[in-house]
Design a protein that fits this description.
2 copies of one chain form a homodimer. Helix content of chain A is 31%, strand content 36%. The first copy, chain A, contains 4 helices and 6 strands; from the N terminus they run βαββαβαββα. Chain A has a 6-stranded antiparallel sheet with strand order 2-3-1-4-6-5. The structure holds threonine (THR) (2 copies). One threonine binds next to helix 1 and strand 3 of chain A. The site of one threonine has 11 residues of chain A, from helix 1 and strand 3.
Chain lengths: 160, 160
Amino acid sequence: KAMVVSGVACDHNVTKIALFDVPDKPGIAYQLFDALAKENINVDMIIQSHEQENRNDISFTVTRDDKDTAVAIANKVADAIGARGVAYDDTVAKVSIVGAGMKTNPGVAAKMFEVLYRLNINIQMISTSEIKVSCVIDEQDGNRAVVALHEAFGLDKLEQ
Amino acid sequence: KAMVVSGVACDHNVTKIALFDVPDKPGIAYQLFDALAKENINVDMIIQSHEQENRNDISFTVTRDDKDTAVAIANKVADAIGARGVAYDDTVAKVSIVGAGMKTNPGVAAKMFEVLYRLNINIQMISTSEIKVSCVIDEQDGNRAVVALHEAFGLDKLEQ
Ligand SMILES: C[C@@H](O)[C@H](N)C(=O)O
Ligand SMILES: C[C@@H](O)[C@H](N)C(=O)O
């Protein structure tokens, strides 16, 4: 049943954008991502955590080329819906571990988080699927994160 | 280049749990998910959005059977790290659309969000991967969400 992490990837072409304290009511997510889609912005991650007191935050990632357009749209939608504000940062990277059967292997994500912790790398955003755990971190930490993750999951041996 | 949504799924065996205002420093995500892994809790979604003023929220989902143990762990870790609090809800379901090439099809997630909006279904949590968009919603909305999504993405025709 051992989880097989088959690969580690790092995407440096990332801008993270967040809308804070959006009203937690139907139609808000649609409004934001429809506006982005109409400008042909390719959105990679969409992350929305647990609501609090009728408000929530919505964050997402786009490429660096799309930063200006996406941030402009985020600001426009934020104003229209009465969100508290918008933040963005294009000095980030998305590091991911990929493998099969993660849902039945609770330790895998914890191990990735441990590797980043031991490198004193702060995790800014987290998103998972059955086959992938992705963390947004400072772009300057990307390369050493990849090396350490390869090692931690035994993938460096394949390259000898 | 048309995105093909090939399936719609709804998982009713879901409990959502969140830790609010955890310190945004290395080691926090590791501490939480290591504690869960040590109790063999299978975590499905892990969602962490954009940080704010040195704090962040971390939410995740587990099965209904694991609710009590996972909530106890969340409370224990929340106290240990000085988080503001914990919330949980097991009256939720996770509805997902699955398909290929979503990253290059910005309108797909927006369309899913639109379908839910038109049904007046509130989206509690969102997580995406290249092949999947998942929304946590009230469990009572699960079935009609699935029917509407099948229809919106043309999947109902296959069943005639
Ligand atoms: C916050 C946002 O996701 C809102 N709940 C919606 O349904 O669109
Ligand atoms: C909030 C949490 O993800 C923290 N930034 C960590 O790196 O563990």
